[in-house]
Task: inverse folding
């Protein structure tokens, strides 16, 4: 899979942010279940500085990914079958 940028080889699009300072990598990790890992890899490899990009609230893409992961794990923590719970959670996304 190849990420196509609307500006060809101009990678400044990676730093295009919205009103909350979310860059494309923030959105990719927010929707991590929707994209193959290659998308994240390409965004990071295109500009490693993306991993330290902060939103207005100070969140980096890694922090958002960890929070999303923790949210799923916490939801399923007390489940008798954690694996089954996580699978159902993924299906609900």
Result:
């Amino acid at each position: 899979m190849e990420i196509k940028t609307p500006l060809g080889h101009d990678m400044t699009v990676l730093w295009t942010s919205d009103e909350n300072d979310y860059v494309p990598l923030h959105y990719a990790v927010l929707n991590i279940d929707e994209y193959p890992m290659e998308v994240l890899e390409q965004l990071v490899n295109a500009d490693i500085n993306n991993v330290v990009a902060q939103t207005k609230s100070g969140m980096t893409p890694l922090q958002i990914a960890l929070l999303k992961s923790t949210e799923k794990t916490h939801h399923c923590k007390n489940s008798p079958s954690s694996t089954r719970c996580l699978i159902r959670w993924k299906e609900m996304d």
In short: DSSP finds four helices and no strands in the chain.
